[in-house]
Amino acid sequence: MVTVLCIEDEVEIRNLLVEELTEAGYRTLEASNGAEGLEMILSKWPDIVISDISMPVMDGHQLLAEIQINHAELSNIPFILLTALTDRENTLAGLRAGAADYLTKPLDFDLLLAKLEGCVTRLENDKAVNRSF
Predict the structure, then answer these.
(1) Cβ(13)–Cβ(50) below 8 Å
(2) For the domain that residue 121 is a member of, what is the CATH number?
(3) How far apart are CA 83 and CA 25, in angstroms?
(4) Which residues carry this modification: 4-aspartylphosphate (predicted)?
């Protein structure tokens, strides 16, 4: 079963994410900000991370940069960033920072699930390639 870490400071949105993902067959972990998310990533090694960008303590961009720079062994974990900001520059910044994908709020859960399925397929393909060596 694929484990998805949901990092979102808005409780209602986080609860909706967890509910939708659980119903879709994913195991979920939760964190309310980037710092808590980092602790969960380091201790639980989730398969995929869904993170809001605008959060207190440590935002989604800072969390992604922390993983990419200081925890290279975890840099292959796909990050899907969420935001209410819809400007092109913000989207490009997230993708250039290493995010696998980027979604705007309000969330379209069908689109989110499709993007998660794509991440799962890439993870499975990577594992198959690694086993062949």
Answers:
(1) no
(2) 3.40.50.2300
(3) 24
(4) 52
* Residues of the domain holding 7: 3-132
DSSP for 43-108, please give it. HH--SEEEEESS-SSS-HHHHHHHHHHH-GGGTTS-EEEEES---HHHHHHHHHTT-SEEEESSP-
Give the number of domains in the chain. Answer: 1
Structure tokens at 129: 């390639």
Q: Distance between CA 101 and CA 132 in Å, rounded?
A: 27
Condensed to tens digits (0 to 9), the pLDDT of residues 29-71 reads 999 999 999 999 999 999 999 999 999 999 999 999 999 999 9
Give the pLDDT confidence of 19-31 residue by residue, as tens digits. 999 999 999 999 9
